[in-house]
Amino acid sequence: MNQQIFKFLLFFAAFGSLSCFEQYGSAKIGERCERDRNCIQHAYCRVQMTCLCNQYYSPTFDMSMCIASAGLSCTDDFACSTMANAECRQGVCACKDSYILDINNSSNCISKPSKMGDHCQRTDECQDALGRAMCINNRCQCISSYHFVNETAKCIQTRLLYNTCLMDYECRGFNNENVLECRNGECVCKEGEATCNKG
Ligand SMILES: *[C@@H]1O[C@H](CO)[C@@H](O)[C@H](O)[C@H]1NC(C)=O
Ligand SMILES: *[C@@H]1O[C@H](CO)[C@@H](O)[C@H](O)[C@H]1NC(C)=O
Ligand SMILES: *[C@@H]1O[C@H](CO)[C@@H](O)[C@H](O)[C@H]1NC(C)=O
Question: Atom 14, ligand 2: which residue's CA is nearest?
Fold first, then answer.
């Protein structure tokens, strides 16, 4: 009797651990399935047809894995380590400071724009960084009659020849050249830039 109980327990121990390894299968994302357990880890079988990643997971490029994406519950940074440039923040995986979520891939955080010409996805990213700016062809550009200055790292209103000014960097020639300076509250030609008011 004791031996029978032992065999019985042994059987369940083996079966239990086996089923533990078989909680997921090998059907990749987009491949056919009948049950959730046919699909790879962190995936499910949608309408008994195809494997999809669970919520807060996204497929890798080759569809072979479902990796953490923004919004996944976490207790430490390791849980978010399959994301690029992410960390665990207030219990969910999120982009690190100065990174923003890739709109095409919720597991990928890309650098936020910080100056003119930096890569952007949407206009509000450029506005947050530079002020009067737009995202044009995936690059931050100042709106017209504004220009980017290193000194403030913002787009500021362009002051032309004889416009009022406070700082040298506000003044720009007609072709946005750096030929003017601010003297006595007015944009004027720099010393030695005698031709600056032509054109
Ligand atoms: C999304 O980004 C992650 C992190 O960079 C990468 O591992 C994954 O392959 C990307 N997914 C796709 C579909 O390109
Ligand atoms: C996202 O996808 C769109 C269209 O496929 C593409 O134009 C854009 O450059 C992509 N963005 C990034 C950050 O890769
Ligand atoms: C602005 O700064 C960048 C790097 O910090 C430098 O390469 C560039 O020449 C500077 N431009 C001006 C107009 O000072």
Answer: 104
